[in-house]
Here is the input.
Amino acid sequence: MSEPDPVPPGAGYFADYEVYAMGEVVAWGQITLAWAGDGDCGPAMLIRRLRQAAADQHGMEAGAIRLRQVCRL
Here is the structure.
């Protein structure tokens, strides 16, 4: 298995997600993220930032977010 590519500085990302509460989907949406290349630029950090940004929009914890699709713009 190969190692994931690092996230390039200046990249933009789009994610489609669902919000779960008590095991049920309660909301869904889309979000974009512009990556400035600051700090850790690994794939795991990208996923954490996308989930946190989506959670912030709904006033939820990041653990309630399920990313369905992530695309580089």
